[in-house]
Design goal:
The protein contains 6 helices and no strands. With about 190 residues, it is an all-alpha fold. It is rod-shaped and about 110 Å long.
Length: about 190
């Protein structure tokens, strides 16, 4: 249960008591203040109920998103952003600056969480595309050069066999290749 529902209900009840006390004492100012507090409490209670409803709906969507759809942070962020806007509006209507400020903070936090979820979705999409491109290139290579894999394996087997038979010769050959590569890369000086 949302905190706004609890505090709203308490304020609503307190406003009713204050209004009745003003009515019994014949004090119109206290009676009016009580009615105003009752209305503010009812608005805050209603806001808490709306937040609970949005949170429940977001949880349902988030569970569906967890099965491979939209990132849960995006859903949660949008929910918090909308809830923050509503909370700020209720704070503005009731003149409660604290509720209005909390609403703005929740709205900003939700916006950041939504952007984080969007970034995660973008990274996941790019990774999926890169994997698809790599699989496509491998498939195209196998189709274009069907004997390439066999030739690669034969070459690897030959080098492995040579390394086992003559490890010193392989070390000398690797050193010579490294020296030649250094000359090519850096040029003669």
């Amino acid at each position: 249960m949302d905190e706004n529902r609890i505090t709203g209900a308490a304020k609503e009840f307190g406003g009713k008591v204050e209004g009745k006390a003003g009515e019994l004492m014949g004090d119109r100012s206290t009676q009016t203040e009580g009615k105003l507090d009752e209305a503010r409490g009812a608005a805050e209670n209603l806001f808490g109920r709306a937040k609970d409803a949005v949170r429940d709906a977001a949880d349902s969507v988030g569970e569906a998103a967890g099965r491979g759809g939209i990132d849960g942070d995006r859903v949660s962020g949008v929910t918090k952003e909308l809830g923050g806007k509503a909370q700020g509006a209720v704070g503005g209507l009731t003149g409660n600056r604290e509720t209005q400020a909390r609403g703005r903070a929740n709205e900003a936090g939700g916006s950041v969480e939504n952007l984080y979820g969007q970034a995660k979705d973008a990274v996941r999409d790019v990774a999926d595309q890169a994997g698809d491109y790599a699989r496509g290139a491998l498939r195209q290579g196998r189709d274009s050069y069907p004997n390439a894999e066999r030739a690669y394996r034969q070459g690897a087997d030959t080098v492995t066999r040579y390394a086992k038979e003559s490890p010193l010769g392989l070390a000398v050959m690797a050193g010579a290749i490294g020296y030649l590569l250094a000359l090519v890369i850096h040029g003669r000086r």
